[in-house]
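User: Sequence recovery, please. Input:
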C-alpha cells in the first residue's frame, strides 16, 4: 500500500471493467494527484497496481455492504450500466 502524499486524493470508481470506467481507472492510476483508487465492480479487473484496491460486489440492488469502501473518499466516478 502506498503512503499518500499531502494533497493527493482518494477516488472510487464503480464499473471500472467497462470501456468508460476502464479509461477512468487507467487515467486515475497514472495521475500523480491520485493516491488511491478503489474500484468496485461485479467482476475482477485482472490487473494489479500499487495504488489499486479492488472490491467485488455482485448485487448493486443492495449497496449496504459498500459503506466502508465508499467512506473517506474524495471523489467518485460512476460508470455502471
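Assistant: Recovered sequence (81 residues):
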Amino acid at each position: 500500500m502506498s503512503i499518500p502524499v499531502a494533497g493527493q486524493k482518494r477516488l472510487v470508481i464503480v464499473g471500472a471493467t467497462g470501456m468508460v470506467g476502464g479509461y477512468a481507472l487507467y487515467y486515475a492510476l497514472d495521475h500523480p494527484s491520485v493516491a488511491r483508487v478503489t474500484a468496485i465492480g461485479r467482476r475482477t479487473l485482472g490487473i494489479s497496481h500499487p495504488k489499486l484496491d479492488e472490491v467485488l460486489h455482485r448485487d448493486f440492488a443492495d449497496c449496504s455492504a459498500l459503506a466502508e469502501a465508499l467512506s473517506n473518499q474524495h471523489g467518485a466516478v460512476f460508470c455502471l450500466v
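Helices lie at 19-30, 67-70.
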